[in-house]
Amino acid sequence: MTINKTKSMMVSPAVNTPRKRNFWGATPKGRHSKKESVAILTVLRDYLGIADKEREVTRILNSGLVKLDGKVVKERRFGVGFMDLVTVDQVNANYRILYDRKGRLSAVADNKNTGIKLVKVTGKKSTGKGTYSITFHDGQNVLTQDASIKPNDVLVISVPDKKIDQILKLGQGARVFMTGGLHVGETGTIKSIEVKESSQSNLVTLEEGFSTTIDNVFVIGNSNYSFDLGAGGSVK
Predict the structure, then answer these.
(1) SS3 for 232?
(2) Domain boundaries, the chain
(3) Cα distance between residue 180 and residue 60, in whole Å
(4) Second CATH level (architecture) for the domain 116-168
């Protein structure tokens, strides 16, 4: 049996909505994990206030007025996650999904980076003949012949065609956004990376005076490129 709804009190902590506003919350489905995503229904109704009722959101979606990473989305339970770009043609606005300082997914107005998306490389597999299958943090993948791409690098891709524009390498001097840990939602600059010989995650030290595991950092810039997060450089 497929479960389409979850009691609001039981939804993922990453969902930024009052638990008592609605008894039921939509269960996200799609490429992101349930714990790291929020249904597009929730984004439109509770985050952005585009509509008050689930029926109104369904009508808007069925009309093809909402795009996710440049593609029309009509499934109201489709999961939206970190760095996804939500475009609402009805109000001519674009929103980037980012973590706030409490680790919750938030929709931040973004009309500057509408044609691109940043994706973190989580896997790389050779398919033969010099071609590699690259898997991203959002569950998508592309084929490339660029052997220099490694896990934890971040690619700047165009949407919706997923054409690689730039490669942001993880290393000293890279500007990063925290996707987890005590400093989630903040930005920093990498000072050093301590490679662990054991099964423990590598430790990243930031110039701002704190350290975190490599899993919690997401590169957003280097000396040649900077992704604009808006005023303040972090999500409140």
Answers:
(1) coil
(2) 5-109, 116-168, 175-221
(3) 33
(4) Beta Barrel (2.40)
Query: Two tokens at 143?
Result: 């084929």
Residue 19 has pLDDT above 50, yes or no: no
Q: How far apart are CA 93 and CA 48, in angstroms?
A: 11
Is 31 a residue whose pLDDT tops 80?
yes
The beta-strand segments (E) located in 102-215 are 105-109, 116-128, 131-136, 141-144, 154-158, 164-168, 175-178, 187-194, 203-206, 211-213
Instruction: Give the least confident one: 36-40, 74-78, 232-236.
Output: 232-236
Residue 94 host element (H or E): strand 93-99
Whole-number Å distance between alpha carbons of 136 and 48: 27
| Degrees, nearest 5: CA angle 52-56-59 | 160
- Reduced to 3 states (helix: H, G, I; strand: E, B; else coil), residue 192 is strand
CA 168/CA 159 separation, integer angstroms? 17
